Amino acid sequence: MLRSQRWYEGDGVRAFSHRTRTRQLGIGGPEHLGKPVIAIVNTWTELNPCHSHLRERAEAVKRGVWQAGGYPVELPAGSMGGETFQKPTAMLYRNLLSMETEELLRSYPVDGAVLMGGCDKTTPALLMGAASMDLPAIFVPAGPMLRGNWRGQVLGSGSDMWKYWDDRRAGLVDDRQWGELEEGLARSPGHCMTMGTASTMTSVAEVLGMTLPGAASIPAVDSGHERMAAASGMRIVEMVREDLKPSDILDERSYRDAITTVLALGGSTNAVIHLVAMANRSGVKITPDDFDEASRTVPVLADIRPSGRFLMEDFYYAGGLRGLLARLRDRLHLDRPTASGATFGETLDGAEVFNDEVIRPLDNPLAADGGLAVLRGNLAPDGAVIKPIAARPELLSHTGPAIVFDGYGDLQRRIDDEDLDVTADSVLVLRGAGPLGGPGIPEHGMLPIPKKLLRAGVRDVVRISDARMSGTSYGTCVLHVAPESHAGGPLALLRNGDMVTLDVPKRLLHMHVDDAELARRRAAWTPPPPRYTRGYGAMFSRHIQQADLGCDFDFLAEPGRTPEPDAT
């Protein structure tokens, strides 16, 4: 029996009430009774340019649902507008959207779901909620925007913003050029067209098996994107009839393949946090160390910014994610199920690469390894993450004196001070920017290069923080230091002038302070007061886990099932 029938069938007063209110909506009985009811969980808003086309795409999904004999209902869900608009960070609300998704699907008379998102945190949030609810579900990625353009140069959102911002601070970009860049950087609906967090996580959704084959690479404004949305609507009706649920798709094999794919893409460091949390919702245990282990042997094949040269539109024309995965077949679990109804291996049949520069062959990778690395030491006992391929190679083994900033406000006030005692050998450290301190572990980890160094031609120094970094960013940035400083991690004990060693080949992050001195500093340390005393922020602060655990809420990460509501 369809789940929705529990609401609609029978002679009881509740079923009568449900039918009456559906008639109030102008819906006749033959339109929905006995048909799979499909929730379209749409994260469209007028403050999320990444999703500005999802209102129209929802209509395409509905078209597909109707054609397959289902009944679609659109359920708006809280959209997170990336780091552009939502403050202090969209990451503060990832778990809230996952809860909303789970409870929307649980509390309403729906049999399956089409999840519509793509901007950074929406993808993991929607998939986490769907995994916890475990109704048949398929994901429709928002798709990347078109390439940017400025004076004949191809621009990549995020990556070129950081590049030209440094140039502007160095006095190399005037007001007119800056205004032109403002209008040329982001030219269409869709998420970032670099291999930032958005493209990384929609690719993750596809390799996990939660989309139709090829869905993640299609540009947002390509007509193929609308066709994919309609086909997803058709497919979810079949999935309900087959009772094909996330728990049938999301197993250890799918998450291992996702890790391999993130590394081969040169994907965002944020994928570590998101995949750890997502896997846990599926009852699968992965840790940051799994990324580090795989990174030693998985080559980087996607020559996409910020690590490479090209953009997602080029990637799509070169064969897209299916083309890249076809080159990794021997490293993947091909016999697992996917939302398409075919095995993962079958979804790759016929996939080709049409441009070996954009999607490199295995014998000519962008890098033989080093997509991500996990560091440990007395500065990060529970780990920290770096993207070696995006760093200056000569800085991957470096020792220098720390310059410590206590929170983002302190960083903004002092970073360009001409009296700041900074050189190219300095190690810039930002603390108070983790899950508790940020709050919400914002994308402050790409600390700006001080102006005095920019003017001298310096474009990278070692930077360390308990924050995250935009996946569109680059540089020698050590991120997600755990435990964070606000939780009493060793980062809280670091002082200006302490020597710090980063040694990526040895996976080491170490401060040269003896244990006795650290014990004295620990005894004198006072925990900072809570950021929030009420509301969602207080709940967040009381239940958020650290970065190495995926920053999920402890009560959402618990195993077990939530009871179905009584619809009668």
What would a concise description of this structure say?
This protein has 568 residues and is an alpha/beta fold. It contains 22 helices and 14 strands. It has a six-stranded mixed sheet. A four-stranded parallel sheet has the order 2-1-3-4, sandwiched between helices.
Which key features would you list for this structure?
alpha/beta; 4 domains; six-stranded mixed β-sheet; four-stranded parallel β-sheet; 12% strand
Share of helix, binned: 25-40%
Total beta strands = 14
Number of domains: 4
Tally the helices: what do you get? 22
Radius of gyration: 24 Å
Overall pLDDT = 96
Shape by Cα distribution: globular
Strand-residue proportion: 5-15%
What is the makeup of the main sheet? 6 strands, mixed
* Amino- and carboxy-terminal Cα gap: 15 Å
Strand order of the largest sheet: 12-11-10-9-13-14
Structural class by secondary-structure content: alpha/beta
Pfam family, one: ILV_EDD_C
GO biological process, one term: branched-chain amino acid biosynthetic process
InterPro entries: Dihydro-acid_dehy_C, DiOHA_6PGluconate_deHydtase_CS, ILV_EDD_C, ILV_EDD_N, IlvD/EDD_N, Sugar_Degrad_Dehydratases
Family: Belongs to the IlvD/Edd family.
Protein architecture, described:
By secondary structure, the protein is α/β, with parallel strands linked by helices. The protein has four domains: 1-34, no CATH class; 35-146 and 188-348, no CATH class; 150-184, no CATH class; 373-524, IlvD/EDD C-terminal domain-like (Glucose Oxidase, domain 1, 3-Layer(bba) Sandwich), CATH 3.50.30. Helices cover 36% and strands 12% of the residues. It has helices at residues 5-8, 13-24, 29-32, 54-67, 82-85, 94-107, 122-133, 159-169, 175-184, 197-208, 223-242, 246-249, 252-265, 270-281, 288-295, 312-317, 320-327, 344-347, 408-414, 451-455, 515-524, 535-543; strands at 37-42, 71-76, 112-117, 137-141, 148-150, 153-155, 373-377, 380-386, 397-406, 427-431, 462-465, 477-478, 499-503, 508-511. A six-stranded mixed beta sheet has the order 12-11-10-9-13-14. Helix 6 (94-107) packs parallel to helix 7 (122-133). The longest helix is centred in the middle third of the chain and has 20 residues, at 223-242. The protein is globular and about 75 Å long. The two termini are 15 Å apart.
